[in-house]
Structures are given as C-alpha cells and as structure tokens.
Amino acid sequence: MNNYPYTRFLALLVLIAQSFICTSLQAQSNLDDKSDAQLVAELKKRMETSLIEARPIMLELVERLKDKPERESYLFLIGLSYQDEFAESSNNQSLTMAVEYYNRYLNDFPAGNRVDFVRFNLAGAYADLQNYDEAIKFYQVTYRRSNNAVYRSESRNRMASLYIRSGQASAGVPLFLEVFNAALLNPELRAQAAAWLIQGYLANNQSDAIVPYLRYLAGRYEAIYDPAFNITLLKSGDDLFEKKDYDQAILLYSFVKGRGEIIRFYEVLIAELQQKVRYVSPESDQFIVVDGQLKAAEARLAAVKEIRAYNVDLKWRIARVYKETKRTWESLWAFVHLYEDFPEHEHVEDFLFTAYSEAIEIGDDTMAEALAEAYMAEDSFIKYEAQVIPGLARMYADDRRYEKLMKLVNDYMQAPKNFSVAAQLVNVVCSYYMVGAEYQNVREFAEGTRDRFASKEPLYEASRYWSGLSYLLLADYVRASNSMALFIDAYSRQSVFYEDTYYRYAVALFGEQKMADAEAQFIRFVDTYPQSNLRGEAELYVGDLMRSRGALEDAASRYRSVPQFTDNAAFIAKGVFALAEVLEELGQPQEAVDELEAYAKKYGQEAQLSEAYYRIGMIFDRLGRLGDRFQIHSMAIKELIGNVSGYAVDELIRSYVTDHGRYETSFADSLKLIGRLVDDAAFRKKFLTDRSHQYQFMQSAEGIYVDKELAYLLIRDRAFRNKIIETEPKLDPETGKPLPLNDAAVTEAMAIKELSELEEFFESKAASIASYAPKLLFSELLSTGSDSEELIQRMRSHMALDMLSAETAPPRYDWDELAIAPPAVIIWEAAKHRETRPEATKELYQIILDKHPYSNSVYDALLALGDLTFDTAQQTGVDEDWREALRYYDVITERFALRSKTATAHLRKGRILSELSRDEEAIQVLGQILRNPAWKGLDHAKAHLELGRAYRRQGKLDEAHGFFERLIVAYGGYAETVSWAYYYDMLTLEAMNETESVRQLVEEYKTRSAVLSNTEAYPLIDEKYAL
Amino acid sequence: MHSRPYNLPRFSAALICCVWSLCATATSAQDLNLPRLPQVATPSDTFTLSKPIAITDTNKNTQLLVGMENGQLRLSFPNMPGAEAIVPIDGDEFIISAQVPAGYNRLLNEYQLGNLGTFITGLQETAEPLAGFLMIPPENTNFHSIFIRYYEAIVTAGRLEDAAKLTNRMPWGQLPQEYIALSERLVYRSIEDREFQQTQKLLSLLFQSLTEESFAGIAFRVADTLRAEGNHELAAMVYGSLALSEDSILRQKSLLWAGYSRAVSKDADGARNILNQVQVLERSDENFLTYCLALGRLGYAEDNISDGLRHLSRAMVLTAVDATFKPELYYLLSVGYWESGNRIAADRLAKEFSIFYPENPWLKKYQADYANTL
C-alpha cells in the first residue's frame, strides 16, 4: 500500500542538480571527442528534458574526473537518473544501478554536500527494491545524523511506515513511541504515530496496550484513513473476535473506516494537495514533502479502489459483537441496518432474521412484528419460516388481532410447505380461541385441519389433540373420550400433547360417568406423570371418584395431597373443601372445621374466604350449632361485604338471609305447635293419635315449616311419642270408672313436662339465632355503609334487606351506580326492570359480561340475556332476533358446558337453530344433550322431542318416529313432554301411512288420558283423533 | 399518544401509522416559550479611541487612527492638527498598517516558544486598540495578523476576562473563520472554568453577531459540552434561540435538542409538546440521529426505559466515535441497560465507554451513579 515510487518525486531535483554541474566542461558532439566544456554544455541541454538522457554524459564525466571532487555531483545525479528510469520502467535493474551509484557516492564522499540527500534516496531505492532492512538502516542514519529537519522528520516517518510495510510493526514500536512523543503539538502526526503504535502493539499481541492511543484516532487525519492501517484494524479485530475477546474487537472495529469513506477522504485530500503543490516552490524542501504526500495519496487511493468493499463484513462483525455481548438493542438495529443497507447480500435473510430474533429477545413486539412482516414480504426468504410465521401468528394472537391472524394462517394452510409450521399455527389459532372460551371454534378449526391433513404429521397430531380437547370442553364426553383414546393409542410420550391428552382422557371418562375407568385412568396419569402440573387437579378427581364409591379415607388422603402438586388457588380450595366434606362424612366435623380454618389462615387474602367461612358455618349448622353458624357467617359478611370482586360473599348473603328466615319461621311455628300441644289437650290427643289429622296439619301452612327434628319426634320417634301420649285410663268393666294408672302410665302432667322441655329446647334454639337476625345485621351494615366509599356495602345490604321482604322492592340504584356494583347486585336490581324495560336491562347484564367476566353471575347474565332476546325473537319471529338470541346461547353452551346443571341453553339453542332452518346444527346440539349423562331425565326427554321434530322437518320420518317412540317408552313420567311426543308421533306415522300404528298409538294414549288430559297437546290430539 | 419507535423505510406503512402521530405544526416554535439567549450589547461601529493609533497608509505616510464613524475610519494627520478624514475601509488600493512594537520578532519567538505571558504583555498596547477595527478586510491591513495572535494567546492562556472584554469589542459579523474557531475555544474555556455567566454572554454575543450558520456550526458542539458539565439550562437557551431559524433543517435540529433538554429536566409533557412540532423522520433525514436521541431521552423522562433504549440504541449504532454527544449517549445507553436489568450489556458498554472516553464527565457520572466495577 505504501509502495509509491520514491524516485519520481526526486526528478524535480534535476533543476537543483544543474547548478552543481561544472561549467568548465567543453561541448562535443561525440562524447569521446568532446571536450569537458562541450560535455557540460550538452549535459545542461539534455537535463532540461530528461536526466536519463543526460546520463551517458554524466558517466563520461565521472570517468574523466576520476579522483576529482567535481565527480561528487555526477555520482549523485547518475543515481537520480536511474531512479527516474525506474519510475518510468519499473525495472528493478535501474534501481540496482541507482543503489550502486549512491553507494559509490557515500564511499567516495562520506562528507559530501549531498550526503543526506543520497542516503535518503538510497533508502528509498532499497525500499522500492523491498530490501527493507537496508532501507531502514539508511533512513535511520539520516534521521539520527542529518542537520536538516525535513530529512530528519521525513526519514523518521518513512522508516516508521517501512516497519509497518515490511511486517515489522512490532520492531518499530520504540520508534513509533519517539514519533508519538514528538508529535504532541502536531495532531496529524500524533494520529499517525498512534496508528503505527496500534499496529505495532497489535503485531505484538498486546491489544491492551493500544487503548491509550485509540482516542487519537478521531479527526480527519490521513493516518486514520490509511487503507493498510484500516485493514490491520479489521484483521486484528477479527482475530480478537475469533478469540471471543469482544470488547477489544469492537474497539478496533469502531475505528475502521469504510471503503467509501477512505475513497472520499483521499479524493478530497488529493484535490487539496494538488492545489497546494501548485503554490509551493519546486525548489523548496516543502515541495518534496507535499509532492511526496500527493503521490502517496494517489497510490493509496488507487490501492483502496482495488479492495473489495468490506463495509458489510465490518458492520456484520460489529453487529455480531453486540449480539455476543448481549447488547441486544444495538444488535437489533445493527442487523436491521445490515438488512436495509445490503439488500443484495447473500446473507440478507440471516440479517433480517437475526434482527427479528433480537426483537423477540427484547420483547419488543411491535418491532418483532414489523421485522416478521418484512420477512414474510420477501418471497425468497424461506430459511426461517418455521420460526417467523408461528412467531408472527403468536403476536397477532396475543394482541387479539383475529383477522390478521387468520389471514396469515389461512394463507399458509392453503398449501403448507412445512407441516411442523402448520402444526404450530394450529396451536396458535386454537389457543387464541381458548382464551376467548370459543370452544366451538376450536372444534371447527381443528376438525377442519384434522380432516384435510390426515397423516400429515405433526400437523395431524396437533389437529387431533385440539379437536379432542374441544369435545371435552363442549361436554361432548363420548366423542372426547373416543378421540382421546385413539390419540393415546396412536402416539407416544414423545408427543407434546400426550401428557395433556392422557389427563383429559380421564376427565372425559369422568364426564361419561364411567367412574371406574376414569379413576383407573387418573391413577395411571398420576403414576406416569408424577411431576405433572396437572397432578394437583388429577388428585382432586381421584379423590372425588374414591369418595363416590365410599372410600372416604382414601379420598381424604388424595385431597390432602392436592397442595403438594399445584399452586393453583382454585384447586387448592377445592381440595380443602372436599376434604372438609369427607371428614364430616367420616364423622369428624371438628377436624373438618379445623381444616377450613387452617386453610383460611394459611392463604389469607389469597383464600376463597367467603366459601371457607360459609362451609365452616354450615358444618355448625348441621351440628345444630346455629348460633355458631350465624355468628361466623355474620362476621364473614361484615369482613367481606365491601369487596366488589369478592363474588362468593353474595352467595353467603343469600344463604344467610334465606336460612335465617327459614329457621326463624320454623322455630316460631314449632314453638306454636308445641304451645298448642301443651295448652290444648284435645288438640294434643288428636294430633298425636290421629294420623290423618297429623298429616293434614303438617301439610298445612301451620305445619309445613315446623322443624324437621320436632316433626320427627312428634310423628315418628316412638320412644318420645310414648312419653307424651297420655295413657288412657282403662275403665273398670264393672263400675265403668277409670282404673288407677300403673307406674308406667303417662299422665298429662308428664306429657306436658316433656313438651315443656321440648319447648325450652326450641326456645333456646330460637334465642340462639335471634341476635343474628338478617334485618338487624344488614340494617346496621346499611347505616354504616352510607359513605359513598362504602357504596358496595350499601348495595349488598339493600339486596339482603330486599330478599327479606315478600314484596318486590323498588329499584334502589340508577344505571351509573349499578355500573360499579357487584354482579349479584346487578342481577338482583336488573330483575326489577326486566319486565318493564327489557332493552335497558340488557345493558345491565352486559356490564357483568364486560366487568366481571370471572364471576358466577356471568352465567346468570348470559341466561337472562338469552331469555330476553329469545322472548323478543318469539314475538317478532325475525331471523336476526333469533340470531341475536343464538349468540348468547352459543356462549353459554360453549363456555359453560361443563358447568351447566341443566340443558336449558342447549335446548333453546336447538330450538333457535330449528327456527332458523338449521336443522343439522340443531340435531348436533340436541345430540350433545343426550351424550351428557348428567342431564338425564327431563332434559333428555325434551331433547328427544326436539330431535324428533327436527328430523321430522327434514322429512327423515323414520328417525323422527324413533325419537318420539323412545321418549314415550323411556320418559313416561314427564307428562307434558310425553304428550307432545304422542302428538308428533301420530302425525309422523300418519305421514308414513302407518294407519294401524296410528290407531294403536291413539288407543294407548287414551289409556293414559287420566295423566295426560291436562297437557297442552291433549286438545290437539283430541281434535284430530277424536279421543 | 404513541411514541414513534423507529422507522424502517422498507417496511409497511402500517407500522408508520401506528406510531408517533404526525402532528401538524399547530404550535410554532415561537409559541413554545423556549428559553433563549438574552440580548446583549454588540459593539458599535462608531467610537473614538482614548488614545489614537499611529498607522501608515498606502503611501507609507504616518497618520493617526482616531476611531470609527458608521463603519468608516476616522483619521487625523499629525501635520494638520484638528483635521480629520473619514475613509472607507475597503477602498481599492487601500492599505493601512499598524506600527509593530519594538522587538516584535522577539515577541513572536516567545509566542512560538509558548511564553504567552511575555508575548501578551509585550503586544497588549499595540493589539488591544485594534479590536474595534477588525472589520477592515485582512488584505487591506496588518491589524489581523497582529491581533489574531494576541487574541489566540489570551484565549490559550485562559485570560478569560481580558478575552471576553476584547470579544465584546470585536465586530464578529465581519470576522474570518479563524476568529470564530478561537471564539469557540474561548467558550469552551469558560465552560471548563465553570464561568457560565461568561459563557452565556459570549454565546449571546456570537448568536447576535454571527450568521446563523456560523453560530450553529459551533453552538451544538458547545451545547453538548454544556450538558456534559450539567448546564442543561444554558444548552436549552442555545436550542431555543436556534429554534427560531428560518432554515427548516436547523430549526428542526434545534427543536429536537430543545425537546431533549426538556426531557432531561424531567418535563416529559413539555418535551413531547416540543417534539410534536417535528415530523416523523426517516433514516435518510439529516437530523435523524438527533431525532433518535430526543425520542430516546423522552422515553426515559416518561419512565419508559424500553422506548428510550429503542431510540438511543439506534442512535448509538449510527453515531461515529468522534461525535461530541457520543459520551452522553454511552452514558444514557449504559443507564438504560442497567435499569432494564441487562447488567451484562451495561457492564460491557461501560467498559467500552471508559476506554474511549476515560476523562469524560459522563463516564464519571455513570460511575458515581451506578457504582460499577469499572
């Protein structure tokens, strides 16, 4: 790089040299023939054009002037001429001759006038001959001995650069340090010296030593733009990078100038130097320097233009250093810029993907998304599709951007190139639906991909998993267990879905009420996956199953283990509650209370406190410790009533009000009955001895609420009855007078004494709850909760007080207030408006859906909304109204399938779908009811009826008849439904031309008319078939 | 209001839409009430010297320079007492020379040797009266060659007060570039000595006297230094003054820095208000770097470290090591990594920072604030 010809700039010295030529020489046309004067004249003439042309004359003169001092200038000029010749021809032979003449000069004239000049040029010639040691030697002498500052500094600088050029940078360090120390007031030279030092230390593997010099590399100094220097930095940086010395590597990279920068720098520098050289006298020392700089700059520019652009490599290295050193943000941008700036680079896809990965690492979703979309926009980018596409899908899903998600997924699914990617997309989409509890959509999507891509693994596997799960969540247990059993059979534990499916399969069996199978599968699951996150929940199920078959101790043990295997607060609570129930069943009520109290204490605010207190109270209740029950419940209510999202307190309030009222009435009626038994001997006798009277009394308003314990004593407990039924004195057959009673006889006094004790007992019971009267409690809470901050307390108190009243209470709160009310209060208040303002009431229910999505009241709200819209649709018959109602029932049947105690929503949904002529879907929904054993009974009966009707509408009369017939046979107890079944079956059979069957059916109906004559269908059948 | 996280010109326009809104410049820079450099008195072009200067004219005649009147020279003649002539300063063939003091060459030698005290003392009487006449073009007088060395000497020697006095008398609007470079050195010197009042006066004078371009050429670098020394208020005045520029690029840059300064003072709303005056910039825009810096600093002011890091890291990878604000950027980015919990990156960056800028106040501040183990 530094290899610019030293000789060329010395040609200018011809003019200087001319002045040394001896003027006494004679001009001659033939050199031998010419006199010295002629030769000199000829020499002058030739030198005006070329020193090379003048050389023969000089050689002749040197020959003639043997041993004479005049020879000195000619030896020098001959050396120069050979250097000029080298400049033109690049022939090293010329340089060798120059070296020879310069050496002769130094030998013959060691103190000659031009000795500095000669040494300087000799060093240059050696440098051009790449004899760097000799070159350095002569520069060294010049640098140390010359009296001329220009020679000294130029020799020093050239010597320094030769150390670099000759690969001896390490050896040059002492000299570089000298230059650096001498350059304190010369920033340009200081930068140069710093650059040399850096190269020297790097060559010596002393990368730490460069640090103090790096700061001098700022500014527009040629040294910093020297291509060789920059390549040294780059290569050294690479070496350090490979050694994972990233800190030092980036130091060097930071100072490397790009090829374009260097070219621009030299273009400007050359222009400046060209201008400068014009204004410097060619005879001045300054000219030598400037011209040398110009030639060097030109050489460097030419050289750097030959270099392949390394900017991208450099930037890539820097970006990798950022990445390796966890400077993630800088890494991100560095790769973004690489992607933007080098779109044609062979690794551009890697650049973009790395940037994307860094954005993911940082958690910058917006950036990651932009980069992923950029990646997707490049048709040729496929290498990282497997990461980018699912990643992008997840981002859309996380932000709930459904349309974008589905566009991406559907586009890919049209012709998936990679079934692993496709499987991930299925997971993302199904997870998306799961978040919104859109289980029907999970089912449709997963079934779709399952059926389209059978055996295309792992896409098929994912689709099978999700479809199976959707069946379970939709309470379609039969399908779920079938599907999951097949999955378990088809895959092994290698499958990521296996563990979950293995567990869900047990849940499905449980749903099917195949208890033994379910228990066995849960136990297999627990044994196979003892560390599973699902274990806590599994233990709960096992406990329930054991409990259901009476293995209470085993069940208790399972429930106790739940907290060991889960952190899920809901499961822990369920476990404790179930444990308490089992302990109670085992006759250990106090232990049950202890467990519940320990739970409340351990989990504090994290616990389901309302529920726990409720259960403790109810255990007391069952023990007959009513005072204790209402005490703990009232305390819990007082503590929890103000928490708007403590939904369970509403249930506590409801049971408190209802039960207290029930007990109050019961005790009052019981005491009244006992009072009559005490006071009214005739009544006592009749009540205790006349079973018919007794029955009628207990069914009357006076008796119906009488305490069951009392009723038992008075009606069934023989021992007690024996103590209160007075012994009838036997009459003396002779006198007709009563005979004296024996010792075992019961007298009126004895009976009254017993009854009085009973009266006291019930009085004490009534007294035990008297101080917990709801009116008292909630009036107090209402008054203390009058501050606006305690609005929630006030609302719940009002609700409780309203419940106490037989009258419908007036609306208490306006819409704005209800907007912040607990959901149970909203439901309560909404009911007051439902008849009169159905549309406005919908807003209230909507508040629950929006603000309290996790409360139990959501189900009530959805049902209410469904019912309201169903009523509207029934009135209008407009499809859109049916569809609106359907939307609510869709949500209920999807989200609450596992929780619904009845099939009302499914039935209504089936009905709506029929109204919308979507019978296939109706059949599907109604079929689901039949597959849920929990809904056996009336719901199944209704489902049969609706299924028959749906098939009938479809013209599938055989199927329709089948459903009606099964209903008639199996569900005879449900008169209303069965009556409709007869009606529709008759119509169906008639349409099937089964006249005899119709006749038989009518006859059969007649035999049951005593039960069926009050049903809605009866008049229709009577009218058509003349019963 | 969303912040504009980044621009990726090759990416979809949708991204651009979701980010920093392109508020129209409903509020002008004038209405933002940005602090500005206060007005100061500028030298008059009409004055009388307390002691006339002996000069020689084009014809080598000795005359007395009495003062100036409306930018023209007032000369009196030793042989014609009471007579005065008003001479334009840039007439053809007009040459005017001050008489150098005895031993001038010796003084110059002292100057070369760095004996500035001797030089200043020796030249003071000759050089100082020339300050008011520097509007004479250099080719028409030797005033400049005498004065500029003197001025450089007092600036270099750190005679802040003397330099400031002279500076106040110099016609900055008409001085060559060399003087402006010296004025910048003087300003730095005043910052170094923490004579911020002096710094403010000098900046005000230069702002009023120099062309906007010349002033901007030094002002942003000076403001970087002011921030490094903790004087954000004065830096904000510089930006506020330049924010009134007619040059849209300069105005934009000033607003960005003004927003940056406001963010430093923890007034996030104020900063956003200012930055809303600037449109969304792309990487190819001249002020993009400053834009990234300002948005990054705003992120910090809004306690959104992630947003701050996003912009500052981009500025970092786009900034050369010799940029005057680079140390501050190192500081901010190190802080961001630290605060975001990425201690590895923070330490790496801080190590690099200490190598590149071992003496920088920002490094010392980082070391003090974050007690790292550098």
Can you tell me about this structure?
The complex is a heterodimer of chains A (1027) and B (374). Chain A contains 55 helices and one strand. Chain A is an all-alpha fold. Among the domains of chain A are: 1-131, no CATH class; 167-265 and 286-309, no CATH class; 310-383; 608-772, no CATH class; 936-1027. The longest helix of chain A is centred in the middle third of the chain and has 32 residues, at 648-679. Chain B has 374 residues and is of the alpha+beta class. Chain B has a domain at 47-98. Helix content of chain B is 53%, strand content 9%. Chain B has helices spanning 13-17, 104-113, 116-127, 143-156, 160-169, 177-192, 196-209, 212-228, 232-242, 248-264, 268-275, 288-301, 305-318, 326-339, 343-356, 361-370, and strands spanning 47-56, 62-69, 72-77, 80-87, 97-98. A five-stranded antiparallel beta sheet of chain B has the order 4-3-2-1-5, with no helix packed on it. Chain B is elongated, with a radius of gyration of 25 Å.
List keywords for this structure.
heterodimer, A: 1027 residues, mainly alpha, 0% strand, B: 374 residues, alpha+beta, 5-stranded antiparallel sheet, 16 helices, 5 strands, disordered N terminus
Proportion of β residues of chain B?
5-15%
Sheet with the most strands of chain A? none
What's the assembly state of these chains? heterodimer
Rg estimate of chain A, integer Å: 53 Å
End-to-end CA span of chain B? 39 Å
N/C terminus separation of chain A: 119 Å
Structural class of chain B: alpha+beta
What topology, given as strand order, has the largest sheet of chain B?
4-3-2-1-5
**How many β-strand runs of chain B?**
5
Number of helices of chain A: 55
Compute the gyration radius of chain B: what is it?
25 Å
Uncertain regions spanning at least 5 consecutive residues of chain A: 1-29
Give the strand content of chain A.
under 5%
Helix content of chain B: 40-55%
Secondary structure elements and pairings:
The complex is a heterodimer of chains A (1027) and B (374).
Chain A: H1 13-18, E1 25-26, H2 36-49, H3 51-64, H4 71-89, H5 92-108, H6 115-128, H7 132-145, H8 149-165, H9 169-182, H10 187-203, H11 211-214, H12 222-225, H13 227-242, H14 246-255, H15 259-279, H16 285-306, H17 311-324, H18 328-341, H19 348-362, H20 365-377, H21 385-398, H22 402-414, H23 419-435, H24 439-452, H25 459-473, H26 477-490, H27 498-511, H28 515-528, H29 535-548, H30 552-565, H31 569-585, H32 589-603, H33 609-622, H34 626-640, H35 648-679, H36 681-689, H37 691-699, H38 708-715, H39 718-724, H40 748-770, H41 774-784, H42 791-804, H43 815-818, H44 823-833, H45 838-851, H46 857-876, H47 879-895, H48 904-915, H49 919-930, H50 938-953, H51 957-970, H52 975-991, H53 995-1007, H54 1009-1012, H55 1017-1025
Chain B: H1 13-17, E1 47-56, E2 62-69, E3 72-77, E4 80-87, E5 97-98, H2 104-113, H3 116-127, H4 143-156, H5 160-169, H6 177-192, H7 196-209, H8 212-228, H9 232-242, H10 248-264, H11 268-275, H12 288-301, H13 305-318, H14 326-339, H15 343-356, H16 361-370
Antiparallel strand pairs in B: 1-2, 1-5, 2-3, 3-4
